[in-house]
Amino acid sequence: MSGTHGPRRGTATAALVVGLTLAVGSGTAWTTGPAQPGPSIGAARSTAPAQPVTVSPAPAGGPPRTSGSAAAVAPTHLRVDRADTTVIDAPLLPVGVDDAGRMSVPEDVSAVGWYRFGPAPGDPRGSAVLAGHVDDRIQGPGAFHGLARLSPGDRLTVALSDARVLAYVVADVGRVAKAALPTGELFGRDGPPRLTLVTCGGPFDRGTRDYRDNVVVTAVPDAR
Amino acid sequence: MRRLALAVGSVLAACAATIAIAPAATAQETGSVHVVHGIPDTPVDVYVDGQRALDDFAPGTAAGPVDLPAGSRTVALFPADAADGSGQPLLSGRADVPAGGDVTLAAHLDAGGSPTLTPFVDDVSPVPAGQARLVVRHTAAAPAVDVLADGSPAPTGLTNPNQAAAEVPAGTLSAAVAAAGTTQPVLGPADLQLAEGTATFVHAVGSLSAGNLQLVTFTVEGLHSAPAGVPAGAPSGAPSGSDGWAPIGVAAGLAVVGLSAAALRRGSATRS
């Protein structure tokens, strides 16, 4: 595991929560605390027998590196043609998260959002997530109104800002309750390159004013 | 010259214990260590348990992560031209390296200007989607400071050797350090590129009176989380084709039944 720095859930938070939490104007909560609970001086602990230490000098830290998935190339357009019918033909907009920590979806239902913090179409690994509305009472059918009608084998194209056009083929079409959406897998930044298209489906719940389910379409690079 | 014995406290040990259970513990357990050199004008060689780990470690830089075997390690700093790890070090101390844990060992000046070693726990827990963690550490010969984030005081009254942490929206943040209670930067402002799903550890080092304060920074990547969901439903709160819907709260029960039936028909066209 040398050099790798993957997520380590719950590693060291406990040491920080002992500190004092300050809420500042922007709503950012700063937690302050001591470096360490009192260093114990000279308390000779009986430790395991000395073992050879193998340490490779690491490169000196420079300025903060940017995340590998901060793509310089962005997807700009998604199109799905089926026989002589255009099922999806929508501009792609980079989006982040909303106040609730959910993926932002463009208010304009004719556009589709691309989760800009995750992989981009064309990246060598991981899931590039595209999400669009199914429909709206005021705006009418959304860009992904036809998403649930896709079938495995359907072909998609994604245009990129560098003028490349990537071809994908639908591998799976499914529907899952929003409460059970496997977000970790759906937004996974590892694994084979894939395109994940998400919209809403299932019954409309008037209580939550939302659809119960997500429709999830997975597409893989078209080797053809 | 000072001799210090440092041990990472029991809180960290407890964390390490919980982590150690999770992975298949076949390989020797290690901890991940960053080293920060914040003592001006003093290039050093760093020895861990008598073996040289870092050669010609320059002031004002950070190194790591290095994976060290978990347990109590002796860390000693010698002048960079020292022949080996024998004799009297400039600084030495013991640090408990937690299995599966992340720590920073900072060689720096205390508030009064004397060299010292301080271990910090690095919070590398997952960061919420869209955010980045910023950790600011006061490891400089200077009195209490306020940290200014985008011009506004964030943590205030931070003293050596303490830290402040926050999760902030990913992006560029302008950070500066001012004497506590003031807004005139003594260090910075510096633009920090806080990428999503990362933790950036910023150390203020050097000496205020000597005029050589600077920031030493390192970043840990891969701490991202998935968004909590994908709200791709109707942004107006109602699906298309529902123009006849009753006002909210009126005959709600009936309306729910009616709309659900309508939506079910729509849903039946989808695959599952």
Automatic annotation (TrEMBL), chain A:
Highest taxon, organism lineage: Bacteria
Name of a matching Pfam family: Sortase
Region called Disordered, residue ranges: 31-73
Residues of the signal peptide: 1-31
Identification of the protein by name: Class F sortase
Keyword terms of this UniProt record: Hydrolase, Signal
InterPro entries registered for this protein in UniProt: Sortase, Sortase_dom-sf, Sortase_F
